[in-house]
Each structure stands twice: as structure tokens, then as C-alpha cells.
Specification:
about 220 residues; alpha+beta; Ribosomal Protein L22, Chain A; three-stranded antiparallel sheet; about 35% helix; globular
Length: about 220
Amino acid sequence: MPTQTGVLRALLPSGVAVAEMDPRESSLSALFPEEAAHVAKAVEKRQREFCAGRICARRAMELLGAEPTVLLSDEDRVPRWPDGLTGSISHTLNWCGAAVTRDPAIRGVGIDIERASSLKSRVFQMICTEDELSWLDALPEDERGVMGKLIFSAKESAYKAQYALTRTYLGFAAMSIEFCGPQFRATLNQDVGDAFRIGDVILGRHLLTEDHVVTAVVI
């Protein structure tokens, strides 16, 4: 099993640059003035996570030979990447990662990092389709919570990756998740602009560590 700081690298192809860090080690001094102003009124936890995300994103950009630049978010809190780049950022209390690419063959990237705590059963109804609920019900009871979190994370990664193409927000019912070994399939349950039709499949990868659930999608 890869170490925590190697999980994202293991899930993504070589054409995607990856950087990771503990948000608690971030410093607001690393932000551009525009970025610092963006989170000036946020609580400290939010400030550190935002800062770590920008540090990781710029480190990944530098690995691709791109100049560090201001990285603000749009109205949907999605990073506005410089022209020619696309990527994704995710963070928890003690782990932040960014994945960035300039490969023109890659149209979207999505990553998600979650604590490996059990998802409450009452939340299953909010994020799961009927088939997903049936799959969870068939699992041993002590596995359902974490596997529910894995479904949530897989959808988050797939949604982020498709957003780069469609700029469309999707609800949890828009995709159905199926796991096959280290891979998962996100099947569209609705048309999304001109990019996706019902039945189209987005492929992703996942890993469970002792403390985290991690998923990644490249389109």
C-alpha cells in the first residue's frame, strides 16, 4: 500500500502532476494578495486548507514548467486554472492534494480525499441510487459506512472531472457508481450538455488507507 503522500500519484497517469501536503503546515504568507483577500474573513481551518490547496497547485504547475500564478475560484468554488491547464484540488484536516495537467488529450481531472470515517446511514438516502443502496445493504454491517463514504468520494471526483467539460453542476442522482477492484465506473443517469449522454461511463480509481478514502478521475 502506498504511503499517504504517494496515494494520489499511484491513482493518476504520468501526464498529471501531483503535489501533496498537510494543511496544518501551510502559511498564509504563501498566498498572493488577491488570494489572501479571498479568505481574509474565513476561519483558520478554511484559511489553511485554501492555502495548502494553492501551494500544492502551484507546486504541481511548476512540475509542468508553468509559472506560479494567482488561483482564485469561480462562483461554484471551482479553481479557475490558467489557459492550457486543468486540474483539481481536495483537502481534509490533515491532507491536501492537487493534480494538474497540460496534456491536451486530458479534458478533465477530478480528485477527492475524505476521512475514512463511516458515512451516517441516514445520509445514504441523500447520495445513493437504489442500486447503490442495494449494494451497500448486501455488505457486512461494519463495512457499510466506509463504503458509503467511498461512493460519495467517487461521485465527487467524477463530478469535478466532468465539470471541466460541461461547467454543469450535477446532483448525486446524476451518476451511479460500481466498483471493480481498484477501479470504479460512474455511469451517467442523465444527459449533460453536449458532452455526455445517459449511459456514458466515466472511469476512475480508488484507494482506501487506514485513515482516508481517496478517489481520482481523468477524462
